[in-house]
Protein 1
Amino acid sequence: MEAIRPVRRVVSSEKTPRKKEPGSMSPTFSTTIPPSMQRKPSSEFGGLQTSTSTPLSVRASSYSAKDLEASPLSSGLNKRQTFTPTRLPATRGTVVLHPMQAEPDDYLHIPEKNVDTHSIRPTWRGCFNVTTLLIIALCLIMLFAGYPIIANFDDSYNKIDQRLAQGQAKPIPARPPVDPDTPSQYHTRQGDDGTTWELVFSDEFEKEGRTFWPGDDPYWEGGDFYYRATFDYEWYTPEAINTTNGRLQITMDEILEHNTYFRSGMLQSWNKMCFQGGYIEASVVLPGGPQTQGYWPGFWMMGNLGRPGYLATTDGMWPYVYENCDVGILPNQTYLDESGPEAALNAKVDGKTDQLSILTGMRFPACTCSGQGHPGPNPNVARGVPELDIFEIQVDAKKGASVASQSYQVAPFDANYKWYSNQSSYQIYDTDVTSRNPWSGSQTQEALSCVTEIPNKAFMKTTRTPTVFGIEYDPDLEDTGNGYITWYVDGKKSWTVYEGALDANEATKIGKRTFPKEPMSIIINLGIAGGFQEVHWDEIDFPAQMEFDYIRVYQKPGQKRVSCDPSDHPTANYINSNMEMYFNNNLTSFSNISSSWPKNKLTGC
């Protein structure tokens, strides 16, 4: 193809187009110079660069003085000009415009000073879009910030009694403490002292399909939490508890629940049904078989000032049963300067030398200062959370059979946890089936404990025969020195602990401890954890069940004390004043709700 030569440009101010050359196209372009291109003539015009690729020397030599005088620059740029470009024949090239000639698409890339202002005018559609976005943003702020803030400061969200009065929640069905389904022959019990004890509470679990979610039952409630006190493998939920075929049934299943691998149940009578002293028994069928190692069934009691599973309520309270004001109430059971006692600084703990206690100290001793939130009845009454274990089931490897660990947990501690130094302080009734528990404590508790072999009939994998477990205790409320605790397995006495086991300990410089005077609530649970005993995973099956045929509580005539808020050891006002601590399972210590520990006369009022 022939190369295109540089073209000579001819600018004409004539209004009539020049005569066409044969074979060429000479269209007439008539346009107005945009304001942005209007410039005054300059002597440097010849040096302007156009949008074409014509060499500068060619452009400069293509115009005469007469051409420049007739150009749009010299005749006024606001006039309408006509430019007639000189064209070569069609075979020689294309149209080439004057450097200042306007092109039809100039408006696309040459900004004007007088921009069309319509582009920035608000429109109904634009206003609607902006308004919609603002509404959505405000709704999100209200949802995730506004409502939580309002709920935090509005007490109406927690006024359960008011909602009940207004009929917004169904009242709990009323039922007397003694279950009408309890056979009349069991309304009394013959005590070891020859007196006839009276039935003060019972539950036969005869009604089919009972559930134990909050508000379902006047005396029981299923827990809905992770039991981090013993680092269990399961999550407790009321869904695992019901009544079936005339029995209470707790089912443990291998179900992923709240990042745990198992789901099970814990039933509590906390703040609903409590008692001080008496005899309690239950008829039970245990999970697995006599040699199945891994399940952790429990039937126990705890002082009502502590709610099981809510660690902030037990911090500084469990398992204190102490009425003195000495080193026994201090953190770690040591002096304020941590100089002793020697037995507390260097104790035998799990086969090694370590400090005796890691407890935070007793929160409400008998010498609590005034104005420290003491539960009552006055700051001179020691308050704590004792624990009585009717049974915790484990496998005795030496015997090759299941045993019931039956214990009383106490604090402060004896030197090296040796509560049994005084042989006359406890009694075992049948040494063939009962023996002292070789484990007697750790840095968080001292356990006055014995273990008793369980009959083979008591398990789900054998004959499923309900077996009676019980405990009888006298809290010695009058301080006569006649307190005791007696445990039962299969309806027979297994062992008894007397007050001598709670005497003062010279080595740790502590005084006498007491039997549990606090109102005690009842707990039933089926757990699984490696801290209690090693789990033999190849021996356990899921789902696993534990069944209770009945629970009954008896007390001596004229000594009926069935209340969670007795006058000598009240709990209601303290619980109501610390609702967050008792209903928030995520709080793990008293410091979560208070910046200072309650003061006592030993630390300074």
Protein 2
Amino acid sequence: MACLPRPGSKKRGESGAPLRAAASALQIPSVQAAPRHIAPEQPLIVPESVRVTDDSVFTAADWSNVLKGYSSQYVEHDFWVDESMIEGTIPEDLEGTLLRNGPGLFEIGGIPVSQPFDGDGMVSSWAIKDGRCFYRNRYVRTDAFMAEQEAGRMLFKGAFSRGDPAGGGFFNPFNLEIKQIANTNVLHWAGRTFALHERDLPWELDSSLHTVGRTDLDGTVGAVGKPNFGSHFRVFVEDDGSKRLVGTSFDEDLRQGKLTFFEYNEQMELLYRTTAELPGAGFGFFHDIAMTENYYIALENPISMDFSTLLLRYMTGRACLAECLKYDPSKRTKIHLIPRPGRSGALKQVALECSPFFCFHHVNASEDSAGSVNLDLIAMHGGVDFSMNFSNLSHEFFAKPPWRTALTRLNLSPATAKVRTSILAERQSLEMPCVAPSLVGRPHQHAYFQSSRVAQASNWGAPQDILKVSMPPGEVAGEPEMQRWSPGQDSFCQEPIFVPRPQSSAEDDGWLLAPVFRAATSTTDLAILDAQDLRKGPLATIRLPHHIPIGLHGSFTQAYLGPQPGTEVQPRQHDIRQGVSRQGQPLYSS
């Protein structure tokens, strides 16, 4: 593993003066408001003081542009990216494959899904080698996807479906199973590729993204409770350079939750399976995980079941399952530290509490010399509202506290069970974080996000920009440094992925790969940015001739999953409306 400098040291592209000059050019404040510490019992409200990046607000026209990104992509592609589609130069030493997953189909049989997260999963890949790129995309052929394509109509209930999506006269409210959609993340490990969704087992794909089938990971997952494997995972690099894959399975009832951690080596052999019982956590909404050298980390959100909605509206088909979950500010947010097996530095399992907030995603976690754990995450201190869907969302959503995010650091003491909460950045609304992969579970200085372009106290917006936040780990003192790249008012960046440069020695020496949806042309680009200096703009932009719907998560593998450069491959297009098939299955024509 490359030797990294001590976090906190200055590196190329981080001096304060160039940052302030760039900030001025972008019309954003050159000084970030100082981090704020939250007293244990103090609820956070987004401040009313106006700290704006510019005079803009997120408008109805902006929201209309967002919605263009949630139009179905019916065509599956395989093709070499022509030189005419590349602006700039792909770095010669960038080699591997970017894999992305997200909903790709937003209607079935002409009937729209209620919420984009219910869309069937479509995986895309950019295989990059020797300055060339091979692109392909493919729908995950889950059993549910195949059955609905054959029937030409909805058959299965999603998390945001109301009543019987098949339109039948009988609705069984006690059936809480939801549709297989495999639309949240994608992982390549031990030579195998998996499409992930947290309420299902993984769906294995081959190197061409054809669906192999549903898998329990060689029998390691299916025997634990309700078989599922979470959509978020962590890869931890040990001191000897070997890697560990950590994933989870969650099983719940009305009283408690059980969170099982699976730790695999690089050959996909299960090393450890650890189950933590979490009393009262049945509705904790454990979406993401973090880890350190000694701990697995799970955050229990302050969510309660609204039994009134469940009995009066869900049971009668007038509310979806998600609408029965309510953010409960009377509860505390809990952080569970679960000792990793085979480690000597962890104390016993402990749950720490702090003022309520909701969190989907963690940035990273690490331990310090005193035994404290620092957890950086994306917090919604104003709560969350699960009733949002296509029918009731508008640009006015971005003027309300729920869903507005802030980069937040928790300093956790396992010995005393005390939590110190600090807000690092709250001007821009940030999401989809990443750090250098070699520093997962270890102290980091640089983190990368998609962020809103609009950043007023009373108005924010959908993710459009890429933001780099630089701050030493540990106790918060001073102000973070920021760099921002904006692709334009009608463009929307998605989750950035950090790829280290081969033989790099600096933490931020590498590239950021980020898809960008262009509303003006309804196409998608892949931007390749210098992670040390976002101000330079993309080193290369791969401009696809079609759009990829705004997606969720992805990962980068050093494995090159494409034809060898120089190999002639006939471009392929297939419209799924003409029928879908998979190995061992008939062709379904709709």
Protein 3
Amino acid sequence: MKNEVKNGIIIAIVVVLILALVYLTTAVFLTGEIGNNKNGDSDNNSTSEENANEDVSSLTSYDNMIIVGRIFDQEDDTYMVIIYSQKDSSDALKTAISTYDSSDHDVKLYKVNKDEAINKSVVSDTDNTMPTNSSEIKVKDNALITISNKTVSSYISDDEQIMNALK
């Protein structure tokens, strides 16, 4: 009887350890939930208000996010799509995108995060400035594409010009 209880406790501990290991592996390697320091700061001196602002901005950053395969499938007659890296883009570009999102504009801005695995197909050594469908879209760095009536009417790949276009 004591052996059965002892074996049961050992099995329960092993199961808990395996589940913890699976969670940690997922959190660290797949989602970046643990150990991801966005600001590059190692000190945790941020206030709760700053943390709240970061939480709000991270929640709103997914407004109008689409996958690359849906770029030409939007309902609007004219709209813009920014293809960018949320990890590698400058703060100035991120601010320009956020400011455009929070303002009232006639032309809607959709966002494609090329860091996501489903959007990796757009990353290339060269830009295709006149794609006719989603599979032809190739971006070297960042790009702001204006689409009118399901065709590309403008393609901007310079960050400064992108920020000016979003003003």
Protein 4
Amino acid sequence: MSKPIDAVAVENISKILGEYTTGPKITKMFSLLGFFDYDLQRQTDNQWFKASTKWRRLDETIRHECNASLDCNNKVTT
């Protein structure tokens, strides 16, 4: 049985990915993986919404996808 994913690890990975990739590449990655892009949806719903930083966008989506997974071992813990 695997351990839950540590929230700090997800945050650190998100920061690294955010530093070395672009917003459009993140959008494409989410699309290819079938991940819902919460930040992009908020921008669509509200023209005055200020986008999150790349790492926060990654962090939010990765945490949500892990916690929504049918495999309970993928939960992100704080």
